[in-house]
Amino acid sequence: MAGYPARVAARAVEHLVTTPEVGRILDSALAGPLPEQLAHSLVRRRVAERIVHELAESGELERLVDAALASPRTLEVVDRVLASEAMGHVLDRALSGPEARAAVAQQSAGFADQVMSGVRGAAGELDRRLAGGTTATVFAGVASRGIALVVDALAVAAISVTVGAAAGFVGELVGGVHPQWLAQTLLSVAGTAIAIGYFTLFWQTAGQTPGMRLMHVRVFTSRLDRRLTLGRAVVRTIGLALAILPCFLGFLPALFDSRRRALPDYLAGTVVVYDDAPERTP
Q1: Pairing state of beta strands 270-274 and 217-221?
Q2: Which of 20, 68, 145, 180 has the most Cβ atoms closer than 10 angstroms to its Cβ?
Q3: What is the dihedral of CA 97, 99, 104, 108, to 10 degrees?
Q4: pTM of the shown model
């Protein structure tokens, strides 16, 4: 009996709301500026933010989110969205867009820089150990120069293979080069010319090969005041070949020389220095 008045009041309100007169009043109010004014008031009073803050403070928001995520219906909706054709188009456009490509390129470049920085640091530390623990030096040691030489050798090999493949294709078009020994001789001469041209060109124009650029080392004349002339670059390239032929024994002097000079440096009157050395003194 205690709930009887409440039930009566609820039925009265329900009856009042469903009457045609009240319906016309509500329809007229909703057709006017009232909804917009109400929305502006809610935004101005920051009602939504206050409600979310209150739910977060009470822990109710976390409970509601957990309940929604644990619901099988939520998982079903998420699966349907991910499997939809529209989502496929969105992902395709997002992943193939310039922003995604720029982000991947930036991450790749950053990773490569990080790897090369680690390699340069390890090579520099090995150079210092081989030099007897000397820390203050502008001259590059055998470790840094050796890694640069490996990179350059791979580059020369790649260029030689490309040129050889192109020459072979052209030779096939004209019926091939005969006899076989002549073809092999021409390929050997071409490979030697590519190697000489590679080192001579980079040393004379830029002062460093691509491998030396990766390791941040550069070749200068002995006085450290200018880059190599064409003749000096050719002599240094010949010296490099002479240092390599006897099982790389031509690089042994760099372990004992105060300026870390090897056979190519003695012949051409050059030194190899770090790009980031604090200072250069003759």
Answers
A1: antiparallel
A2: 145
A3: 140
A4: 0.61
